[in-house]
Design the sequence.
């Protein structure tokens, strides 16, 4: 479930920010959001990819998860 979510996030980042696959993977895997998604107690892995992407986009643009 988490792998599918991460895959979708990477594709969204590639499309939205026009990044290569490697750059998008690096951005997602090094984000605060990735840590929160993989922490099962947060429950973020149950949320939709678009919900999580909005959090990631805010982290990218603001430098933190709002």
Sequence:
């Amino acid at each position: 479930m988490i792998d599918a979510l991460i895959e979708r996030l990477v594709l969204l980042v590639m499309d939205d920010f026009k990044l290569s696959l490697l750059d998008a993977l690096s951005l997602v895997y090094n984000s605060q959001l990735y840590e929160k998604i993989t922490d099962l107690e947060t429950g973020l892995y149950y949320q939709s990819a678009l919900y999580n992407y909005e959090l990631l986009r805010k982290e990218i643009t603001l430098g933190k998860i709002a």
